[in-house]
What does this fold into?
Amino acid sequence: MSRLILALLVSLTPLNAQETLFRQVADTKTNTHIEAMALFSNPSLGGFHPVRVTIVNNQKFQHNVFLGFSDSTNYRDGISCTSNFSYAIPPGKTVVADIIVPLAVHNGDQNYQNFTVNLTGSIGKASGSANTRFSPNHPTVLLSDSLYGPNGSSLDTEAASRGHSGYGGSRNFASKFDPKRLPDDWRAFSGFDTIMLTEADWADIPPGPRNGITSWVRLGGQLVVYASGNPSTASLGMPADPGFGEALIESIAPDLRLNAGDTVNLAYNKRATKHRLAAITGDFDGSWPLQKAFGEKSFNYILFVLILLAFGILVGPVNLFVFAKSGRRHRLFITTPLISIGTSLILIALIVFEDGFGGEGTRLTLMEVRPDGNQNAAFIQQEQFSRSGVMTSPSFTVKTPALVAQTPLAKSRWARFTSGYGASGSYDLQPTPGGLFANGDWFQSRSEQGQLVTAVLPTRGRIEATNDPATIVSTFDFPIETLLYRDPDGQWHRGENIGKGKPAKLTPVDPTMVQPILNDTAKRFTDRNNAFLRRVSDRNDSYIAFAKQAPAVETHPGIDWKTDTVITGPIAR
It folds into this structure.
């Protein structure tokens, strides 16, 4: 009886999964107003923060409103990101818009997210803020209202007891959400590692957000549904094959009480896969295979020293005793600037000669292609490293919905974004229809930089089975150099030089010939993507293909990119 009463009390207790950032009323008589509501109680560390904007214009003239968002990893400066959104609301209209606001990238040093919004325009002025205290050393979790009510405090205590407190001696285990109020865009969940909710919560999620969560799972997220019975993933409509991610069903008592230790362990020990932020801040700092394969760049100290030495001699004794000798000292006002300008031009010419314009880069892409379930999508984890020369423009456009994270590199003469205290920089992102516009310090002149790009691309490409079990057909628009296929019985087959639309014969091969290829390929990736590849390579009736001409997620066009792609997925039947 006591458990029943507790459950009833929990269900009746109002829970604020959404956080009202501001509500500005322009006219009380007509109830003309704007409200901005964050759909998660706390922002994640990096990724995006979903905000629902409701604008009601019951007046007889148009209202123009402007929303300016800013996020940083510190109170005043640190690493920052800005974005802006504007709306023109006709008379008598109401607009409800879900926007995803980019959050500042992280280098692993700060555990604080300072998120602010400012409203300007004809409705009036208002502002709001939100912050979070997640530890960058541990995964970030989304917890549904129904689970947060009876368990939030104990889970926070359990997480803090493990010696990883956040800012001010406390930390959040989870950010809470209302399953009925979720965005459709998978990027809204991209800053989180785990989503935990009940079977009833999962049923309450509308189809759009559910598809977004499914995409997030296939990219590596962990979905945990707590159920009192014994349902299957099929009966709940969960992804049976989660791709790079994980979809679990766990038992729960009717009072919805969770064991705090087991729950924290479940989030922390996600199939031995690093959580997202730990991978970003740890996998690229000094041990990144892609950067090592690219090679190091030397610095021509001697030439620069000689030029500066010559400058010192010219601007000093030669200038003083030859160009502007005694009785002609007034010439110093002409000769000194000319010598300085000439030396600067020589240095600029030398830099351009040595480094050139733009730069060179290499990309390694892990692509899970899913033609099943009417998805027809490619789920992409793209590692990219580049070395830039003289960059004429820092901005670039990503023409597909994506998450771009700057990765901290090992400290060097060329690295600009590194781990450790004191990192700063502006990494601005502006969501556009179907993509992102980036500006700021992503690609600086004469520097080395790395990014991890996560994206979901629509595709009709697939590997199809034929009536002949030893023959497949590729519908990809690019050639495949090598394809390894593991049939329903676990037998490996191999094919070479597979073009679009042409039946390709596969040859059975011994597993001892396949495993070294898979091991060598996995070692080219960072630890997290290495684990993703090994996870999907164990599936039957699936393939692993290698291509050099597969399309990548394009970032800065000034970089001359070379791309290698590893494609995985089930055989289409």
